[in-house]
Design a protein that fits this description.
This protein has nine helices and 14 strands. With 373 residues, the protein is an alpha/beta fold. The protein has two domains: 30 residues, no CATH class; 277 residues, Alpha/Beta hydrolase fold, catalytic domain (Rossmann fold). The chain has an eleven-stranded mixed sheet with strand order 4-5-6-8-7-9-10-11-14-13-12, sandwiched between helices. Helix 7 packs across helix 8. The two termini are 22 Å apart. The structure holds 2-acetamido-2-deoxy-beta-D-glucopyranose (2 copies). One 2-acetamido-2-deoxy-beta-D-glucopyranose binds next to strand 13 and strand 14.
């Protein structure tokens, strides 16, 4: 069971606040909870103060506020005093970033889709700090992921800097399907995010060897995209309930299009085919690949659990690892039913038995994987 009450609180707190399990959603879905979609059997009404907003055929979500349009990218659910307005430019040094306050930045480099970008700097920054890019789920925002996670709180302990991108698309899914976003320096949302990370390396003294990406659901897919298309920028990726790199590819359609075939786990390829999608994203790249940790629930009906198997095939092939794990164990700090399969030093795959969309965040474990904690 849990060895740490802290983790228990964190995991359950997130379930309640943000990411409900289907089986807990008997009466009403909480704010940020799923409230509908094909395959959804949980609650279809939302907690007081939130409304059910259809994101796509497969996903509706309880969003705060009455009758707010699903197309807005305006920050929602922002704790008072925790964001500031755009500065009109990106801070030229770490010292010009306000401490302990989510702050929007702009003009940080090529950003063809106008991804909004927010930075969080803790009160005490480590020397040559790591950088973590944390990408939100569909219908989410930078503010929602900021306030619904412990990434910012833990940065106050460990001294890393955070970037929280915010999707520019209606419904706020990420562009994880366009040719542009799936190509190194090819444009799309991924280029905007990579630009901000590069800006941080160049201007803020961030340690280029410790630039990491994490994300949930659509943000998990973006994390796979960043790991596949920008292996020169990102040194590790943590994918919470996402899909393999390139699985959502829909050339010629709007970049934030939903790929039902992939979502439902019907895009089944060989490891070689999956790896080729990664290699094609940045032809000629021969450097190291980011180490990857993927998490998925077996009861996920938004991004079906087959996607876990496809991710395993992809990254084991990219790394040249055997297709079966060298160890696969339960962990004292994870709930029972979670198995941690290790295929090699650079790839782990955690499967959560009976858990739906999405697996709750385990920030402290992520930081361990990233070598921060
Ligand atoms: C690890 O073991 C569990 C059973 O304990 C199994 O369900 C899971 O598929 C295994 N993971 C991998 C990646 O093989
Ligand atoms: C999974 O196992 C590996 C190898 O023992 C370990 O390094 C890692 O911390 C574990 N990951 C999780 C999330 O427990």
């Amino acid at each position: 069971m849990f060895s740490s009450p802290f983790r228990l609180t964190s995991a359950l707190g997130l379930v309640a606040a943000l990411l409900p399990l289907a089986q807990l959603a008997a009466a009403q879905s909480p704010v940020w909870g799923q409230c509908g979609g094909i395959g959804w059997s949980g609650a279809t009404t939302c907690a007081f103060g939130s409304v059910c907003v259809k994101e796509n055929d497969y996903y509706s979500q309880c969003q705060p506020g009455a009758a707010s349009a699903p197309t807005t990218t305006t920050p929602v659910s922002t704790p008072p005093g925790q964001t500031s307005t755009p500065t009109g430019s990106a801070p030229t040094g770490l010292s010009s970033i306000p401490a302990s306050k989510l702050t929007q930045i702009s003009n940080f480099g090529p950003n063809p889709n106008n991804v909004q970008m927010f930075v969080y700097k803790p009160a005490k920054v480590a020397s040559k700090p790591p950088l973590i890019v944390a990408s939100h789920f569909c219908t989410g925002t930078a503010q929602a992921y900021f306030s619904g996670s412990k990434f910012a709180q833990l940065s106050e302990t460990y001294g890393y800097v955070l970037l929280f991108p915010s999707s520019p698309h209606s419904g706020t899914c990420w562009d994880v399907s366009s040719d542009a976003t799936l190509t190194h320096d090819g444009g799309g949302d991924s280029q905007g995010i990579a630009s901000a990370a590069r800006y941080a390396i160049t201007n803020w003294g961030v340690d280029a060897s410790r630039v990491f990406a994490v994300g949930t659901s659509s943000g998990a897919m973006m994390t796979s995209v960043l790991a596949g298309a920008y292996p020169d920028v990102f040194k590790a990726g943590i994918v919470d309930s996402g899909v393999a790199f390139g699985c959502f590819a829909l050339p010629g359609q709007p970049g934030d299009s939903w790929n039902a075939q992939c979502a439902q786990g019907q895009l089944v390829l060989t490891g070689q085919q999956w790896a080729q999608r990664v290699f094609n994203a940045y032809p000629g790249y021969t450097g190291a690949r980011p180490k990857m940790q993927v998490w998925h629930g077996t009861a996920d009906t938004t991004l079906y659990p087959q996607n876990f198997n496809e991710e395993v095939k992809q990254w084991t092939t990219v790394f040249g690892y055997p297709s079966t794990p060298i160890s696969n164990t339960s962990e004292p700090y994870l709930p029972s039913g979670y198995s941690n399969a290790t295929f090699g030093p650079n790839f782990q795959a955690i499967l959560a038995q009976g858990v739906g969309h999405t697996v709750p965040l385990f920030e402290q474990q992520y930081l361990q994987f990233l070598g921060i904690a």
